[in-house]
Amino acid sequence: MLTSHRTEDGLRVVVDAETADPKAFFQVLDTAPEVRSYEVLHTDQQGMLLQVETAEHEPRVAARTTGMLPQYPMVLRNGWQTIETIISWERLSSLKTEFEERDVSFEILSISQSVEVTDLLTARQWEVLTEAITRGYYDTPRGCSLTELADALDVNPSAVSGVLHRAEEQIIKSFAAETKQIDSLNPPY
């Protein structure tokens, strides 16, 4: 599904269909009770482009009710629709409830929380980290010592150490969570 638009009594959907058996595909469209009409916009050896007028199906109503904005393209294969979306935890919970109330079969394949790398650190942490990298503090062997880095930043070494430690903590924990190498970042106590 490339796009869809709500009409007064349903949806208008543009579908890019790939099928080895166009006759069987059209037979499915002709017999599907929710399909009101369709128009073939383009055909070639890879498939066809269609505009389909259809009733708004329960998963779509549930998504709309919770305020989930559709993202395209959506893949429909063998009766399962795969959807990727950006949604808050609250709306995701509401969507799950709506699906259950409407008896919609669903499966969540994965959930990830996107974090912009630039949001991980404070401006001061970025400043100190950038200076440390530029001066070779993280090189092997080190291009500068902690004291030399502190002198360049005109602060004491313990302040630089504290800022770097907090920045490193954020970076390492974020990396571990993103790569799913550990189950939880919460301490076991």
Automatic annotation (TrEMBL):
<keyword id="KW-0804">Transcription</keyword>
<dbReference type="InterPro" id="IPR007050">
    <property type="entry name" value="HTH_bacterioopsin"/>
</dbReference>
<dbReference type="InterPro" id="IPR013324">
    <property type="entry name" value="RNA_pol_sigma_r3/r4-like"/>
</dbReference>
<keyword id="KW-0805">Transcription regulation</keyword>
<protein>
    <recommendedName>
        <fullName>HTH bat-type domain-containing protein</fullName>
    </recommendedName>
</protein>
<feature type="domain" description="HTH bat-type">
    <location>
        <begin position="121"/>
        <end position="173"/>
    </location>
</feature>
<dbReference type="InterPro" id="IPR036388">
    <property type="entry name" value="WH-like_DNA-bd_sf"/>
</dbReference>
<dbReference type="Pfam" id="PF04967">
    <property type="entry name" value="HTH_10"/>
</dbReference>
